[in-house]
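Q: How would the structure tokens look for this protein?
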Amino acid sequence: MDVNAAVAAAAAIAGVLTGVIAMLAFRWSERDQARPTRTSLHTDPVLPPGVDTVLSVLRSSAVVLDEADAVVKASSAAYALGLVRGGRLSVEPMLQMARDTRRDGEIRQVELDLPRRGGGRGEALAVSARVAPLGSRLVLLLVEDLTEARRIEAVRRDFVANVSHELKTPVGALSLLSEAVMDASDDPEAVERFAGRMQIEATRLTNLVQELIDLSRVQNDDPLDDAEPVRVDELVAEAIDRCRHAAGTKQITMAAGGTADLSIWGHRGQLAAALGNLVENAVNYSPARTRVGIAARRLTAPGGDHIEIAVTDQGIGISDKDKERIFERFYRVDPARSRATGGTGLGLAIVKHVAASHGGEVTVWSSEGQGSTFTLRLPEAGAARDRAQQHPVLDDEAGRPADPSHDTPPESAAYQTLSAPEVHP
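A: Here is the predicted structure in token form.
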């Protein structure tokens, strides 16, 4: 009897354990079935075959939205522009376009101005957005950044307007003077006077056209195509000879000094034009019976030696507000004085582009009433040639010129030329 009771108790315990184990196994199985698998995480709307590859090579910012307006795919450019934040499209007008396109299947396009990311000040982002259906459930948004294109277009419009204005002045003067000559045909003295004025205006017009051609060349031509070692002393001598007559008329003495036997690797014609413009400006804006100095020296730097050519005058100087703009096209510190000297307002713009295309920069130190020093800093020949062949320098017109104004005085070497031996015009 005791044996049967023990067997029965053992059987009962075994049955209870079996039930518990079965229940735990059932619960464990249900948990495994409810747990998402690696593949079930991606059962949301999937891009059609090949679309992902196409979107990865597009230059436009791409965003793919599902039927719940969630972002299925977005390019890195879309994140950079701030179009996608937190997995959602953050631009409400684009989101509304996507909803309308999903509803009727029509392709839509619009241009928008978006605030810059971070909400800082500055020019707004100009974009062109195009929305199209992608299959039955997805919508594709392509966004093109038009900011740079609009900036370049604005620069082009300003340039055309400035050119038109500058050409209008001498052309109008020639027209009026020709009428005056016809009316004064019986007065030899008046004819001679008007003819002299016509010659001045014709010269100004010729200079303007030539400098427009020069500016176009330095912007479009690669100076490395015809690069060669150019001796600095030859460039200085050519610049002095170019301004010899103008300096002699004003009794301005030109002096050259600095380190001898320096060479620059670049386009000889462009370098001569740049330095010639600096010396010509120094002569034009200096009072009579003063001095203009030109000094060259070598600067040792970790990235390679540079050559500095400084042009120092004792002229009227440049104010701080004008120093920020003197390298702009057609900008003149004193428009009335520029008309008197025949200036076109393009000389320093040409210098800036020549310096940038040769991997250098141009800077200015000036104080009103004390004169100015323009410094052209360019890589020395040899190392510059090797560096240019490996990494060609591109001229970035939006340009952004090197900081044109230095508030610290120039090195004393630039001033020593003012007391150097005279180069008589």
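DSSP finds 14 helices and 14 strands in the chain.

Residues 147-220 form a domain with the Helix Hairpins fold (CATH 1.10.287.130).

Upvote if useful.
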